[in-house]
Amino acid sequence: MTMIRTTSLSLFALLLSSGVALAEGPKVDPSLADSVKKFNDTFNKFDTKGTAAFWAEEGTLISPAGEMGKGRSGVEKVYAHDVEMFLKGTTSTFRIESARMLKGGFALLDMDHEIQNARMPDGSTGTMKLHTVILAQRKGGGWLWLDARPYAFLKPPPAAK
Question: Around 140, how many Cα atoms within 13 Å sit in the side-chain half-sphere?
Answer without folding.
Answer: 4
